[in-house]
Write the structure tokens for this entry.
Amino acid sequence: MPESIVTILDVAIGGLLLGGIYALIAMGLSLQYGVARVLNIAHGEFIMLGAFATFTLYTVVGINPLICLAIVGPIIFIIGFLLQRTLFTRLRISAPNPGAFEASSLLATFGLLFIIQNLVLLGWGADYRAYSYLNFGVDLGGAIFSANKLVILGFAIGIGLAFYLFLARTRMGKGIRAAAQDPATAGLMGVNINRVLAICFGLGASMAGLAGVLYSMRIPLNPAMGLQYTIIAIIVIVLGGLGSIPGAFLGGLILGIIGEIVTYIDPSLSLAAYYFIFMLLLLVRPKGIFGK
Amino acid sequence: MNITTFTSKKFWVPGLLLVILVALVTLPIYGSLYNVILATSILMYIILAVSWALFSGSTGYMSLATAAFFGVGIYASALLLPATGQVLPLLVVVVLGGLVSSIVALGVGALTLRLRGIYFAIFTFGLVVLILELLNWWEHTVIHIRGRFVMLVDNDVIFYVMLAIFILLMLTTYFIKRSKFGLALQSIGENEEAAAHRGINVTLVKVITFAISAFFMGAAGTVWATKLTYIDPYVAFNPLFSFMPVLMAIFGGMGLIYGPVIGAGIFAYLQETLQTEFPEVYMLIFGIVLVAAILYLPNGLVGLIPRLIRRWRKGGLKQQHADT
């Protein structure tokens, strides 16, 4: 295969991989903001938690990172579920109007960010950590890709699709979509709103956690790594249209590919490129690509 | 009884303000160097919180561009007050830094103030990171500069300039709130559509207020730079300076003019002392205080004061009844 095509393929796979991770994170945040109305600034902290948990489970206990998905996902789901049930439900009930709830919950997630980050700092220390898993080349028709890259890509897209089917096809998913459109009416129709919101927040957090498990195979971990993913997730959900799950999925893939192309040209410009696209889009089409 | 409360109020408020002012002005005489430096950072946070609340508190547009305007001020210092070869006097640079910030705010405001709600918040935050990343790229790969140094300024001088900006800001806020312009601003916050139908030039009022608040943020940044002495894009455009003023203003309560002052004062003091006393767990304590404040003080600290006064008065009344 000619050199240039290999490069293009490499950038495309890298972009899809990054995009798959972004898509998972953004779908999680979209669920939290689109349904539970919590713009969770601590979203990235759940990615960090997932990544650190995997690091310890793999290097100390020796559990395969792919099995960690089944351990970390449910645990973070429970944490998110309980947070919504205690903290955010209380804020929601005491807020005089939805706007006040959005402001107070945003501030509360800031507090959470500080708390989680400090706890991880106490537990694991401030050093960068990394481990190596499936780190060998796979030959795909002449071009060589790292095996963990392909595994992450497959799992990210698989989880994203499964999640979408859950929302689109199951009864619970229907309840969640109803609560997103109009919580009061959904409540009248027999949807248990407090439970649905708690499930949404829990699922959102566990999506972030799963993304953290997967991505920990490729990036160095640090307690302060979370915020940048929160920011990227916010960009993606605005790009895809606030509250739109397919929008978050496709927006994530698009941003990942753009990011990988810009990184190929000049790595120090990728964040700037995200913001540039994002701000341009906000000015031209503030509803996002899939916004109604 | 009415007359006595009226006269005592008329006497007490300016009296109290005068006492605080004298205490602040004479601080470098009786306070230690550490106290002066601590007071300077607290004043800096108060300036950011009050000028944030001046625009966002009254209009309801949550701006996260504070770090951008603050950083522009810091860079004004970096370029005009370098460690060697000072170009202009400090005060001129402070005014210039403020002016450049408000010019940036005029442009950004005219472009973005039609965005509503969360979109405006996200856009303004994006602005901070975009400036940060582009400047970083420019310095590293185009002009090959790693960090800049600002000239050393005496701590007392930094304190007095910060204090002057603070006093000017409080006077500006006070007069805006009392003026027709302030009323227009408030009606925009309550219902923008209705304000526009009333004949208020909504865009103009918003953009001008945004620029005024940016002036003070930029001026504070310019002075702050002389305290930092070392400057690079990550120091100057730290996104934390966008979030902190919001937290502080809401913590203090935005209903009253002194809410953000009290909020930022306590918050900044807490932050500085926790950071030096408990560096290991300072973020943890900070986060817990923040969550607790949101749960138990929905109207901020100043919302607590009327509640305490009411309780105290009730207690006092009971006492009177018991006496008779």
Summary: The interface with chain B takes residues 39, 87, 90-91, 94-95, 102-104, 107-108, 110-115, 117-119, 121-122, 231, 234-235, 238, 242, 266, 268-269, 271-272, 275-276, 278-279, 282-283, 286 of chain A (CB under 8 Å).
